[in-house]
Amino acid sequence: MADIFSLFTSLRYDPGLLEVPSKGIDYAGWNAANKSPFYMLDYHRDRMLRAATHWKWDEAINVLSGQKGLDTLTKLAGEFIGPSQETALRFKILVSRDGLVSFEKNNVAPVPTENLFPLRLPQPGAPSTSGEAKKTPCWTVAPDDLQTTASEYTHFKTTKREMYDSARERLAIAPTDEREVLLVNKHDGSVMEGSLFTPYFWRDGRWVTPPVHLSTGSGGQDGVSRRWALERGVAVEQAVPADSLTDGEECWISNGVRGFIAAVVRLQQ
């Protein structure tokens, strides 16, 4: 019997995003062109469509494809949230093999606009300047002490998340902790990604994030905030060996719910 799982993506719903078009943040992408409370919704649709295409889920492909698919997703998401939601939410979209779309929502903390759409990430040891992501709060990240085999389930975002859940359990990370675990590729010992966030490290005078191609990269997920950062030159792709991490080094993490967050590496003793 085939594994039963769904595709999903988690994004930020935030009424504050409705102001982005009027703030002149031209590089914001979807949120600059659309007066929408959904953070990078087009990229979230794209990632689910890529996954549906990979597994040849025809019904899901049909639901998600084209402008019609994006418009339908926008409409369904708005109807689920309702007109009276005034605070930010973590908003989860799930798509089944037969194209059924469902949603979940939870409260989430406020985030400054600069950390959702940074022009740059400040260098290690430097304060944030205008347009750069703010360095507070600051999380900690640590590499997992076991390595993970890359697979289609590490590269595409699905409800089969045992490898991520196990890594978090090994570090005893609770849902409310400001901590993240870095998965390490079993094949070459490189950093794959975080359990919930894309990591960025300062290497050779620039911010880099692991390449995620399933056969030639780390096998991690092509996250929406990662795509946004790469397309705008905020970071570039470069393999990051886990043994190159140093205790206390400054880094960044990002995802489609919390945007970009400053972090520091803490090696496990």
TrEMBL record:
Organism field: Hypocrea atroviridis (strain ATCC 20476 / IMI 206040) (Trichoderma atroviride)
A molecular function (GO) term: catalytic activity
Protein's recorded name: Aminodeoxychorismate lyase
Top-level division of the source organism's lineage: Eukaryota
InterPro entries (UniProt xref): Aminotrans_IV, Aminotransferase-like, BCAT-like_C
